[in-house]
Amino acid sequence: MSAATKSVEGLYDCRDAFAKTLEALAEADDRVVAVVNDSVGSSKLGGFKKRWPERLVNVGIAEQNMVGVGAGLANGGRIPFVSCASCFLTGRALEQVKADVAYSNTNVKLCGQSPGIGYGELGPTHHSIEDLAWLRPLANLITIVPSDPWETAEAVRFAAAYEGPVFIRVSRYPVPALQHRIERIEPGKAEVMRDGDDVAILANGVMLHKALRAAEKLAEDGVSARVVNMAWMNPLDIETIVDAAATGAIVTVEEASVRGGLGGAVAETLALRRPVPMEMLGFPGFVPTGTVDFLFDHFGLTAAGIAAAARKAISRKGR
Amino acid sequence: MSLSTAPAPAPGADRIDMVRARALSIRRSAFTMVHEAQLGHPGGDFSAADILATLYFGVMRYDPKEPRHPDRDRFIMSKGHCTGAFYSVLAQAGFFPETQLKTYMQPLSMLNGHPNRNYLPGIETNTGPLGHGLPVAVGIAIAGKLSARTYRTFVLTGDGELQEGSNWEAAMAAGHHRLNRLTVIVDRNRLQQGARTEETNSLDPLDDKWRAFGFHVEMIDGHDHGALLDVLGADPAGRDKPLCVIANTIKGKGVSFMEDNVSWHHGVPTDEQFAQAMKELI
Fold this sequence. Notes:
The complex is a heterodimer.
Chain A: E1 11-12, H1 14-28, E2 32-36, H2 46-51, E3 56-58, H3 63-75, E4 79-85, H4 86-92, H5 94-103, E5 109-113, H6 131-135, E6 142-144, H7 149-161, E7 166-170, E8 175-176, E9 191-194, E10 199-203, H8 208-220, E11 225-229, E12 232-234, H9 238-244, E13 250-257, H10 262-273, E14 278-283, H11 292-298, H12 303-315
Parallel strand pairs in A: 2-3, 2-4, 4-5, 5-7, 6-7, 10-11, 10-13, 13-14
Antiparallel strand pairs in A: 1-8, 6-12, 9-11
Helix pairs in contact in A: 1-7, 3-5, 8-12
Chain B: H1 15-37, H2 42-59, E1 74-77, H3 83-92, H4 133-146, E2 153-158, H5 165-176, E3 182-188, H6 197-200, H7 206-212, E4 216-221, H8 225-233, E5 243-248, H9 271-280
Parallel strand pairs in B: 1-2, 2-3, 3-5, 4-5
Helix pairs in contact in B: 1-2, 1-3, 1-9, 2-3, 2-8, 4-5
């Protein structure tokens, strides 16, 4: 549980942006409450707890109850941010997420902390690489995978203002603050971060900055790669995906299982609308132990790995 | 504020008689729905009918014209499969027309097999999978405490349903927060889908379990309208902990061939059985 905020390299833990934004929202609107499963520290909500102890509901280690209590608080007029390690929030309490939040269409904000392989060495019980595949079919549930601190803060602000269920993936892996072209996030709208015509790299979360670096590498070799930020998993920006397929080759990159997440969503879209060669980067199954950086290297989730996948997708054009 | 314990008994009638009449009417309505749909859970509808009648016609404050009034008392049907009785009491309480009950489980009906808050007014949360009602009720009660509102929160669970661990997560939280305006009612009919609870995964001593989790416990006859009115209607300000009412009931109560018979968990009647039941439900 390192508490790094901004390191000397200019890297950020998005949980800090999450917590800071939530505190600002709580200050402005007393309907905002937090619900946790003994996850005050891991959600960086120590400051929130200190300022509003009665508005931080700690149910203890009981995720099913945590999500149900969130739905009940929404019924009572509150805006609950239910914050917990993503593996337990989406795995242990999946039926509550389905029935009490998505199907009931309640005003609950689910914040999946340290998702993907954020807990590297702790292993697959603590990894949350399945969450996107589990949540993507749930109607009503807005699902956002922010890439950096600004986008995380925007997602939290959006969630508070939006009347309905939202899931936000809040990463702990240190990421740079990216240069965005937009001033506000727009629900269901993918952001083209970099233009390009030879291939399109569709990424989200902590993979986005690696995708941008991959595009720079490809440019050095004269390959023009578009990079699209697919932060919105639901609603999905179908038209921007179809536009990206006009490059003739697609690569998806996610800190998640390659089955059922971003890659799956894009593949479904392309198959129906505009089939083109596609490469999918992510994790093939349960992940072995290792540091997060080791695991990203091991599975090719690096700028070099993404660039190689892009070249492969390009090489398959017209076959 | 237009909330009231609706509606008042007719002049000369007392509350107990009114609740008794409503319970009978709920049973007749629910069984008619189940007979027409040839689907449903009539055994549990009948064990819960007196509890529902007491809550909606003797205890709870609500306004069917303003179903999401912030100060309304909340009721959560955690045993969400017993919609025959639940939809019947909601319709009789005025949340939607009783004529709509005819569409029960028909294609595209708002009267789904399990209740959906987005389809019908008066439903607080979508239930069906067991063990979901109490956690939501705990959240509602915490919200009320935070806002210093005086509404009460009631949740009706089955007894077999208490085998779901989520109930005990929620019970622990309710006890910890001393949610005195929360009431759990257990429809203790001692039968679950396939067999007796005590043969399947025993619950007794059930009162001790709830006490251990921080509840005040009352054990009553769940078909005694006077006892139900007394216990459920008591002012919660006199308690410093949540209340659990273990309502000892009979599955299929009111129809001789259905009482305490496990096959009526989701059994449906033939025309002859329906006619016989209607003769007994008077």
